[in-house]
Amino acid sequence: MYSNPILPGFNPDPSIVRTPDGYYVVTSSFEYLPALPIYHSMDLESWRLVGHVATREHQVQLANVPTPGGVWAPTLRHRDGVFYLIVSVFLGGRGCVLFTSTDPAGPWSDGTVIASVDGIDPDLAWDDEGTAYVTFARHPDAIQQVRVDLATGEALEAPRPLWPGSGLYAPEGPHLHRRGEWWYLLAAEGGTDRGHAVTVARSRRPEGPFEPAPNNPILTAAGTGSPVQNTGHADLFELPDGGTGMTLLGVRPVGLTQAFSPLGRETFLTTVEWIDGWPHARLPHVAGTGPEQIEYDFANGAGLEDPAWMAVRRMPSEFAHPTPHGLVVRGEGNTLDAPRPSFLAQRQRHLGIECRVVLDVSAGTGGLAVRNAEDNWFGIEAAREGEAIRVTARAVVASFERSWEAEVPDGDLELAILTSPPRRDFSAGAVGGDRIRLLVRSSAPHSSTEEVLLTELDGRHWSFETAKAFTGRAFGVFAIEGEVLVRRLDYCGAD
């Protein structure tokens, strides 16, 4: 039993390696920078974000990549003291890129483009002679493979079909593993929604031919009442006791009908049993994420040291910097509808959160928000108007937007976003999403300390199933115009 999800919040497409220094996992990051978060654990229970592969925009070139493009489905491997990370930057980025480092926390190389790989979800493996094989998905041609000179990125052959999959929709996410005399090819099939599944084939040689497992799919939550759904995109690794573990993605849908997943695709861990030479996996047990409380006191020296901070298609330092009075977030005339907003964010990691921020908007317009994509977000915007502050709560879903307004006295103000999952019974509201409350309170001297509820929302409209952004909720502060001074931000989460 593991404390699943091991990486809560938007952390899809996990790839894992075991090293003498413990376990390392990387996940997809799509349009966010820094990109490709690297997590470390010694015991598979406690995980820590130690760094990112792409901390320089030119490594991935996301500036003009549309949502849901960007950094898709990496593979992390370790060989002869070197870490290798291969990934596709899809829909306009650098394409297939290989990064290397001797320290997974970074810095990583600028990357070598592998032009012959024109698909997604690249995997990296070596045969006994040291030849590198890149296996990838290319719709509609299923799984393909090419041998590559990793030093130059040049192909040693033309890409060739490897395996068409087991017959389910959209074979992708391949990972090639050696076990004894067999090479096992894992794939993700059925799409990344409720039909998602893990399938496998094997061959005596890395280049095939591959025969499918008789028990495919070896893992799926489709048609079950499991609290984890959309299970797939798996990777294998060795457990401390010599057994086999599996990382995979999944979602935690809430409510009576388990229809809406607020946090997007997360990383889970389960175990694998080998029977007659084939892997058999069980659905991951869910223990829930432990409570977390973080306080960023920007007015007393806190800055951007936490590696969890990220921004959309650029680094946070481009528009945010610490000062003696707090963290300044500089607006550039862009709202959260824009491709490159001034939005300093972190992944929402719990189903129930209380996020509060104290702001000074005397020199700018901005606030607190939660984002899935340019057309899927909600938040609270504040702007000074004469001797008062106009506060506007906004909810955006595709082409629909609604707003609610209030006025508070001039001075510092506290904005808050609270979420809570619905009950799993037959009560009113149980068939919807989580409940989202947007609140404001003035922090100005001699003002009322009463909190004002701006609106309450049904979170089904900001879930993975409706947003379709491939990411998940990210919370944080933003600026539209001028400079917003953030004095503190508190995050309290529990499942």
Automatic annotation (TrEMBL):
GO MF entries: hydrolase activity
Keyword flag Transcription regulation: no
Matching InterPro entries: ConA-like_dom_sf (IPR013320), GH43_C2 (IPR041542), Glyco_hydro_43 (IPR006710), Glyco_hydro_beta-prop_sf (IPR023296), Glycosyl_Hydrlase_43 (IPR051795)
Pfam families xref list: GH43_C2, Glyco_hydro_43
Keywords for this protein: Glycosidase, Hydrolase
Annotated ranges, domain Beta-xylosidase C-terminal Concanavalin A-like: 306-481
Similarity annotation: Belongs to the glycosyl hydrolase 43 family.
Protein's name in the database: Glycoside hydrolase 43 family protein
Organism: Pseudarthrobacter polychromogenes
